[in-house]
């Protein structure tokens, strides 16, 4: 087992809404600042979404991505993983467009369709800051996050064209089979980087038993790979700790959980990064630098991006 662990910080995402926490970064400057602080705390990679700077609604504007990426690159050498999940309800063409524009080192690659449900949160919020928020949550009661084989091939070929490594988001066990099929077709290239996403309503429940099951299934289906874990809400730290004991890498951040501990809102992504780094060090593991992460994952390098 390697003594170096890749810590990814998922900075803002498209799941949480501004009314849920005052600490969610929305504006490009806020997002860039959070990336830099997370890097200083030990994150080697930042997973980046962007939002409308006025309303906080998930956006996929190339101008916003470029602004964030350029501001980050000017201040640190962190590797950026650009979203192709985008915001809920966006088309595949809208979701992928940041890859040709930025040509990033990494991009998320959602490997199958699921019922991506956020609607239970709507009843827990007493007052909304923006008009879009309640509808955004409620519509997920009748929403499928669609990733068909046609769109999966399209995303793979686009990433291959620009030298962007796909980070495979595995929300449930069937998605491992999807990845194996894409490898067989020759559109998904080894070596792979898998991220097991656990605890989403519509995906696999977050438990150590399920994580072991995912790992065993993936090893049978696709052989060797580098892997990481992220988990929703209260499962974030326990599942990341389990991943560390099993030889995996970890993702934390405000995209996945608004909290630092029970009832305590995280004031920044860096706080969560510091927490998981402390846990890693208690296990005699050290956070990888960004350049070490590049070597582990086989990334093309910061000099070959388009920002």
Question: Can you put this structure into words, describing what you see?
Answer:
It is a single chain. The chain has 307 residues and is α/β, with parallel strands linked by helices. The protein has one domain (4-304): Aldolase class I (TIM Barrel, Alpha-Beta Barrel). 37% of the residues lie in helices and 17% in strands. The protein contains eleven helices and 14 strands. It has an eight-stranded parallel beta barrel, surrounded by six helices. Strands 1-14 form a two-stranded parallel sheet. Strand 9 (193-198), helix 8 and strand 10 (226-231) form a beta-alpha-beta unit. Helix 7 runs parallel beside helix 8. The longest helix is centred in the C-terminal third of the chain and has 15 residues, at 208-222. The model has no long low-confidence stretch (mean pLDDT 97).
Notable characteristics:
about 300 residues; alpha/beta; TIM Barrel; eight-stranded parallel barrel; two-stranded parallel sheet; 11 helices; 14 strands
